[in-house]
Amino acid sequence: MAYLSAARKGATIFGGLYAAAILAVMIPYIQTQCVQVYLLNNTRPHPTLVLWYALHDLFPLNQLVLVLQFLHALKIPLFSDYNTPEKYGLAPNKTANLKISTADGELLGAWFILADQFYHSLPSHSAPPVEHVGAALKARPTVLFFHGNAGTRAFGARIQHYTTFSSRLSANVLAIDYRGYGDSTGTPSEVGLARDARAAWNWLIDNGALASDILIVGHSLGTGVSSLLSAELSDEEIAPKGVVLLSPFSSISKVVETYSMLGIFPLLRPLASIPRATEFLMKRLIHKFDTDKLVPRMKGQIIIAHAGECGSRHPGTGSQDRPTENDWDIPYTHSEALFTAFLDPHLPQMIALPPHLASLSQEQWSEFTSRAAERREAREALVSTTEIPKFGTLHKFNDGKRTVTHVQTLHGGHDYVGIQEGVSDIIGQTFGFF
């Protein structure tokens, strides 16, 4: 007991110092003073610190937080030539480079990629692809794709998504760079990205697409954007073909809480011993992207896909074994949480326990365990689970109005779960591409 007490005390002290350090470096004055001391005591200071000090007054902390959350300054590939998508592997005259205007005056860079089936039906490929947009939208469904943070629409992993959608699904693809990304104007924000998504949607409709022919697909940060657009459209009783969330998060705050550097070192774990320290930091997040809170507003068919090496525990079954992590950026538990959020309204609601379990009566405990058993049985009856050898596990339920599907793959990591043929086939079968 003495050892545990000492360990607890040590963890508390360490957590306190860690929290104090985090809070301290959030204060511009302390940042400046620390760097000044370093520069004065080092005849050959690191060039990065010298540059940081020189730019500090021009780059306030709130701007630093913005950059770290969206990583829009990482314009990878560098010096991208958006007018020449062929440079990044797309077929000649298959992709139109566009500019899309938003409601608040920003100009978004975008690519419209013709579906393979339509592209190969053309008598020649000499005409600019922009001339075929209207006909392509009428001929084949379209994937409206929202990418993750960092990089641009020319990033290699994103190109692979476009080619997968245009070939495997034979769908047109509209891919945008949000404000502040690529060659788009403006500065990113949660509200701004939602406006960008609606501008892209409106562009498709204005050019002749039917809402029922547009599949909204988001990856990583793009799942938050996709969910915002889906909720907005549902509020207006507009029904797209459906929504696909690839490597999604339940909320940005939960990502920060669960993030581990290199998949090993939990970023905020040292703060756990300090009451309300993590909560305090979470409240400082400006752009929250609370996808889990949007679930009640999202209508229509939904697919959630995430990489996590499958164990015997699956959403909706109540089994306790844990899968192995395959996504080092966003844990698969975020997808489980979202699937459960869609499922929850169709299950018996749990009884709230009192704040102090010591005051729990035998009658309350019996009622709680009984309700938990009812809920588990209801989940098992509603959710179908299919093991697909060497690929992963498929969970789905139908509430009478729509099907919600959770695909948990063995492979794919964070960036490539969506380009797996198995995932594409599930998308194609669910949304009628085949």
TrEMBL record:
GO terms for molecular function: monoacylglycerol lipase activity; phosphatidylcholine lysophospholipase activity. InterPro entries: AB_hydrolase_1, AB_hydrolase_fold. Pfam families: Abhydrolase_6 (PF12697). Residues 143-289 form the AB hydrolase-1 domain. GO terms for cellular component: endoplasmic reticulum membrane. The keyword Transmembrane helix applies. PANTHER family: ALPHA/BETA HYDROLASE DOMAIN-CONTAINING PROTEIN, FI04476P. SUPFAM superfamilies: alpha/beta-Hydrolases (SSF53474). This is AB hydrolase-1 domain-containing protein. GO terms for biological process: monoacylglycerol catabolic process; phosphatidylserine catabolic process. The chain crosses the membrane at residues 12-30. Signal peptide: none annotated. Keywords: Membrane, Transmembrane, Transmembrane helix. It comes from the Eukaryota.
